[in-house]
Predict the structure.
Amino acid sequence: MEQTLSIIKPDAVAKNVVGKILDRFESNGLRIAATKKVQLSKADAEAFYAVHAERPFFGELVDFMISGPVVVSVLEGEDAMAKNRDLMGATNPKEAAAGTIRADFAESIDANAVHGSDSLENAAIEIKFFFSDREIC
Ligand code: GDP
């Protein structure tokens, strides 16, 4: 069983489609082992996205991620990391395959509805960033 971290980003939370996105996970064999709604601070977002600190869009990414609350979840299941990435679709929603979360709910490359860990190593780091052991069950 793998675990991965999902974030429903501020654009999707503001659109009131949290339940629809969580349903995509549950309907495709992923279990929600933990979930909560969080308002990130600037320091939180900068720390979470530290790997992108040198990218030209880092400032925009941080500003977007603190523009409203997010819903963070630990998803569990067989191949959970890759399965979540498949369900999300391409980073740019204009390139995302039909039926993916980003194709159906995202507007642009920055307001792209969801984040998902991109490796098992990062998943473990990102899960620890948001959740204590007792919150994951
Ligand atoms: P992901 O793993 O599919 O989320 O994509 P990346 O790890 O490459 O990028 C992280 C996040 O940075 C993306 O989900 C976008 O929100 C944002 N991002 C990526 N590329 C761009 C860009 O060219 N411009 C802006 N504004 N944001 C971007």
About this structure: Residues 9 and 70 are 5 Å apart (CA to CA). The chain has a mean pLDDT of 98. Residues 57, 60-61, 91, 109-110, 112, 115, 118 surround guanosine-5'-diphosphate (CB under 6 Å). Strands lie at 2-8, 31-38, 70-77, 114-116.
